[in-house]
Design goal:
By secondary structure, this protein is of the alpha+beta class. It contains 27 helices and 26 strands. Helix content is 47%, strand content 18%. Helix 15 packs parallel to helix 27 and helix 18 packs antiparallel against helix 19. It is elongated and about 115 Å long.
């Protein structure tokens, strides 16, 4: 049993109450600050570090009552706003915890979430007490760099990286062109004396590479070196710097043994890997921005004098009356007090059939009023609506989306120091700088750096050609590993359109014309669906009547035609899972019209090829059970609330399942965001698209199986590339250490190794079970 009795805090020496990884702390503040200083290698002089000073100033250290005080703080601040930031230069999860605790300690900040995996922070604050500028300043005082999500700095950085790569590629091509004639002189006499002046052109061409293209590499190396951290940039900086210095020395001494081309190739390949890598980070900030934009901003409020005025949703209170007309969204949860109409709640419940709303019925924010006009009394403000709860759940899932950590990221922690040590041992043992340089060049991690990004980029292009756009590159590692597929019903497994399934084909041309004329005069969703399915010219009918909740009646010549329910028409009811209406002539049944939603024809075959699969829907159990049985799913869950879909996915993830959720509606967004792989289909809403990892641009769901096959092949290609890279390094380093490989051949081997990776990656063009 671990105990902290009689022990002191590792940071402030106060009595300890928390034990973490063998260290004792008096409070969570000391624990977080200690872990940051430990990661940075600053424990020896921690009292002079900005993080420690700011933590002391903010009362974060030696304060066991801090979390209790923060929890008990008044939560009655009004006019709250949300600020989303990207925080740069965080070293570890403790950095995020320190930022969160210090910001929560500021007056005016009600809630704060800082996520280390995505570098994103979501801060809820009251502008009456604290400004955005003050929040930025507090984070900067800790030594971090906050960036507003509206700032274009990130896109500018990506463009600058692309420019560095272009410059590097241009200079490298020129240096290679200057180098080949020089290499030729090693095997035959140089009658033209090219080897004496072409190296000088390579020397000149290498300067843009060093001073512009490679500058981020050198800067990153120096930052890590000052903190005692060696990464890939360290090995590259040493090898590139050594190659440049040795080449310049040989050039000044009249020797044509220069390695500017090797140095150039190293820089160019690394920048290519970095550019590909820069696309790997999940664009959570874009998703957050899109989610925020998709929410309604204003509602039509009914005033005391009977007029209406558009008001901001945050100014609308419980009890206010709002008006909504046909085609508009219901912006807040409420209860209808006047009027009636048909509401499409398919985005929220998954039920494709519009629901009639009349006084006393409840309406939900996010639903669309298809016909009619209603006034409803607000039951919940913006923060309490079902729609807002869904958005908050989606934000939480997006901010905690796991970062994809490649095997190379783990290996580099010991690979770089080991290579540096071997190179130094070779230098001291042999006394030859060329051997030292050979070890560094042959071990240059360019192949490791491009092994995975190249395959992933190729996979992304192949998936796009199949009709699948990858939005979150991190999901690629999970493709083909799925153990459970969960599908939404409406709009995913089915086509998501309320239309005629059968019945009108038995009618004559004249009867179809009369039926179309009747339906055209009604705004009821069933009437509109029948009208759209009839490709005939409407007849000129006589009298027409619409009976609410019953059906339609019209006269043609001396005949009476009626369309409606079995109870109203007095005909025998047909039982089934779909909506059924009856068309009669002079009280004689002409046909029974069945309406519903079509199942996509490719779904049953797809389900047969997948592992365990479920269908989850907010629709009635009878309908969901029928679709599940028809498509041969392993199980189903019906009448599921939108928020429960996310909980369903989370439960299976906690059991160790790799879950892929496929959906389209607003009600699917929490589940899409929470799944290991979230796929939104072609007809998806903005919110589900922004929550997804993959967006299908084709209506054919059969592409999901092809996505899985490509994902499995891509993993094999990455494994082959890494196996080659490590094998090549092990053999090459040994040969370089004993002097078999001089720097020229080492550089050539490094280039050929990278070419092998590129060629092997191109084999992803064909889907095979190899």
């Amino acid at each position: 049993m671990n105990t902290t009795e009689g022990l002191n805090c590792a940071l402030c020496q106060q009595p300890a109450s928390i034990r973490d990884e063998g260290q004792d702390f008096c409070c969570h503040g000391c624990q977080a600050v200690y872990r940051i200083l430990e990661a940075r290698g600053q424990l020896s002089d921690y009292t002079s570090q900005p993080v420690f000073k700011q933590a002391v100033k903010s009362g974060l250290i030696s304060n066991p009552e801090l979390l209790k005080a923060l929890r008990n703080r008044s939560r009655e601040m009004d006019d709250l706003q949300k600020l989303h930031l990207e925080v740069g230069d965080m070293w570890c999860p403790s950095c995020a915890e320190v930022i969160r605790l210090i910001l929560l300690h500021e007056k005016g900040i009600q809630d704060c979430v800082v996520d280390y995996t995505t570098d994103l922070a979501s801060i809820e604050f009251s502008p009456k007490y604290i400004s955005k500028e003050t929040i930025f300043r507090r984070i900067e005082e800790l030594g971090y760099h906050p960036i507003s999500l509206a700032d274009e700095q990130a896109s500018r950085g990506h463009s600058l990286l692309l420019l560095r790569l272009i410059v590097a590629a241009f200079c490298t091509l020129n240096i290679m062109m200057f180098s080949w004639p020089v290499y030729a002189t090693y095997f035959e006499t140089d009658s033209s004396n090219l080897s004496s002046w072409l190296p000088w052109l390579s020397f000149v061409s290498s300067w843009p590479l060093l001073t512009f293209s490679a500058w981020p590499i050198f800067r990153r190396f120096w930052q890590g070196f000052t903190l005692g951290i060696l990464g890939m940039e360290a090995l590259i900086s040493i090898s590139v710097g050594s190659a440049f210095i040795l080449s310049t020395w040989n050039l000044l001494n009249g020797t044509s043994h220069v390695y500017f081309d090797s140095m150039a190739v190293v820089i160019t390949l690394l920048l290519l890997g970095k550019l590909l890598e820069s696309k790997a980070k999940f664009s959570a900030k874009e998703s957050w921005m899109q989610l925020t934009r998709s929410l309604p901003r204003r509602g039509r409020k009914q005033l005391g004098d009977g007029t209406t005025s558009f008001e901001r949703l945050k100014d609308i209170q419980v009890g206010d009356v709002l008006m909504t007309h046909a085609g508009e969204k219901i912006v807040l949860d409420g209860v209808v007090v006047d009027g009636m109409g048909f509401v499409d709640e398919s985005l929220l419940t998954g039920e494709v059939i519009p629901i009639e709303k009349k006084p006393g019925d409840q309406v939900t924010a996010g639903a669309i009023l298809q016909s009619g006009s209603i006034a409803y009394r607000v039951l919940a403000t913006l923060e309490g609506t079902t729609l807002q709860q869904m958005v908050m759940m989606i934000e939480q899932e997006l901010s905690h989306k796991a970062r994809y950590i490649r095997i190379t990221d783990k290996v580099v922690q010991w690979f770089v120091p080991s290579i540096a040590l071997l190179a130094l041992m070779t230098l001291f043992w042999s006394g030859e700088v060329t051997r030292f340089l050979s070890v560094l060049l042959i071990a240059c991690p360019c192949t490791l750096g491009i092994a995975a990004p190249l395959v992933e980029s190729r996979l992304i292009h192949r998936l796009a050609a199949k009709g699948a756009l990858v939005r979150n590159r991190g999901c690629l590692a999970q493709l083909g590993k799925e153990t459970l597929f969960v599908f939404d019903k409406t709009g995913t497994v089915t086509e998501g359109q309320f239309k005629v399934l059968s019945g009108i084909e038995t009618l004559s041309q004249k009867e179809q014309s009369i039926l179309k004329a009747m339906c055209r005069l009604s705004s009821h969703p069933i009437s509109q669906a029948i009208d759209q399915s009839l490709d005939v010219t409407p007849a000129q009918i006589g009298s027409f009547s619409s009976y609410h909740g019953k059906g339609l009646q019209a006269s043609f010549d001396k005949d009476i035609f009626q369309l409606g329910s079995s109870g109203w028409l007095g005909v025998q009811r047909v039982e089934g899972v779909n909506t059924v209406v009856y068309f009669v002539k002079n009280h004689t049944l002409l046909t029974t019209i069945e309406l519903g939603d079509h199942i996509r024809q490719e779904v049953p075959n797809l389900v047969d090829q997948l592992p365990t699969s479920y269908i989850v829907s907010g629709d009635h159990e009878k309908v969901v059970a029928f679709v599940s049985q028809s498509c041969r799913f392993d199980g189903y869950h019906a009448e599921v609330h939108p928020l429960e879909k996310g909980d369903f996915v989370q439960r299976y993830r906690e059991r160790g399942e790799v879950v892929c959720f496929v959906g389209d509606g607003l009600n699917d967004a929490p589940a899409i965001a929470g799944a290991n792989i979230g796929i939104s289909v072609a007809s998806a809403t903005d919110m589900s698209i922004q929550s997804s990892d993959i967006l299908l641009t084709t209506k054919n769901l059969g592409v999901i199986q092809e996505i899985r096959k490509l994902g499995m092949i891509a993993r094999r290609r990455i494994a082959q590339n890494l196996l080659w890279a490590f094998g090549y390094n092990c053999v090459g380093i040994g040969l370089a250490m004993v002097g078999v490989l001089n720097p020229i051949y080492a550089a050539l081997a490094m280039v050929l190794s990278s070419l092998f990776v590129i060629v092997n990656t191109q084999r992803l063009t064909t889907v095979r079970r190899d």
